[in-house]
């Protein structure tokens, strides 16, 4: 049986697809298409909103759980990416109402690391 090797994306190709999807607020598609199976998702120490997660399934569960608690989206904004080497950074501003926290305004830096054509790390600073 012949296996077809999956094309390994360059960091620039990952950035292009990430940007296209992020500007459309398609964060789950970013996870599905661009995250490695062993991706790590790291929150600031002591975050009241979410915990860290390790592995694509756990990261998706973390995101699903958070999104399920959003009661209203008042404003969202994602900047164009800054790219250096294998790292991508974007600024993200959100004004949302989330159970049980109420309305929160979050200004954060979202940092991603790419290896072998996949995102292996997302880390949030807020």
TrEMBL record:
Boundaries of every SnoaL-like domain copy: 9-126
Domain of life: Bacteria
Pfam family membership, one: SnoaL_5
Protein name: Nuclear transport factor 2 family protein
Species of provenance: Chitinophaga fulva
């Amino acid at each position: 049986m012949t296996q077809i090797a999956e094309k390994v994306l360059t960091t620039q190709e990952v950035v292009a697809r990430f940007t296209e999807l992020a500007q459309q607020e398609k964060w789950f598609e970013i996870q599905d298409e661009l995250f490695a199976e062993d991706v790590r998702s790291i929150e600031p120490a002591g975050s009241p909103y979410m915990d860290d997660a390790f592995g694509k399934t756990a990261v998706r569960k973390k995101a699903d759980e958070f999104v399920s608690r959003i009661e209203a989206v008042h404003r969202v904004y994602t900047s164009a990416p800054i790219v250096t080497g294998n790292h991508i950074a974007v600024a993200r501003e959100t004004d949302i109402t989330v159970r049980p926290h109420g309305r929160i305004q979050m200004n954060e830096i979202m940092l991603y690391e790419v290896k072998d054509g996949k995102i292996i790390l997302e880390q949030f600073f807020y």
